[in-house]
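As a warm-up, study this chain.
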Amino acid sequence: MNPGPEEPRRSRRASRDAETAEEGARRGGRRGRRLLLVAGLLLLALLVAAGLLLWSSGGDRASATSVYEESVSPGPEPEVRLTNDRGRISVTGEEGLETVEIEATRYARGADAETAREQADEVSVEVASEGSTVSVETGGGEGVDYSLRVPAESTLEAGTEAGRVEASGLREVTVRTEAGSVEVEDIGGPVSVEAPRGDVAVRDVSTDAGQVRAEVGSGDLELADVIAGTIIAEVETGDVTFSGRVRGSGEVAVRTGDVTVEAPSEDVGDLDLDSRVGQVVYEGEG
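Now compare it with the structure written out below.
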């Protein structure tokens, strides 16, 4: 029996289907190989990055400290100026003390303990004295923590890029820290504090004719037992609490936060209190 006309067509169709399947298999194989290649390259890149990170961190895996000490004999009513890159600053005024006692703890890292100690020893601490002015500057390493003991009649001007600042028992204080909290207490004269990022506490200040000024970016401000001729306080974001007495006038301005006054109205004087987003709470008697 001769094949009908449908038989050749079925044969040709089957052939084309076979060719299409073969071509699809070839394309699928090529896509699979490309995907494997891309995955391999990504894995290689991740391994290289991890190796570089491990190598770089392993280069400074040891840390060490080195303590620098110096004693300076200034003139009467010393003016102490301290500039730090990173690290804590603590300055304490002491009655009867006639010298400026400086202790600086320097931090550094290295490939091993010995190298780290050498690096810490090389962190610069520059001390200069001229008349009644004592200047201390530092730089390098992983930071320096300062602890100073000074005569009680000293004036302090301190600044740090990052770190907490504490000052007490002094005649006058000016402090600025870019990032860190500030605590000032037992001061017998004007106080000025700038802290863009950090809480500020000013306590037990007596300056009848002087000014207490505080500029805070993000952080709370505490003014406790402050007696001043003028008070100027500006806070971007944070709460303010005040207790004490204002002899003259002043302003407490808060952009976002509450203002709480814990003093009788007659002790506040002409102090202007304002909060754009927040409330002013008056808790004093009278």
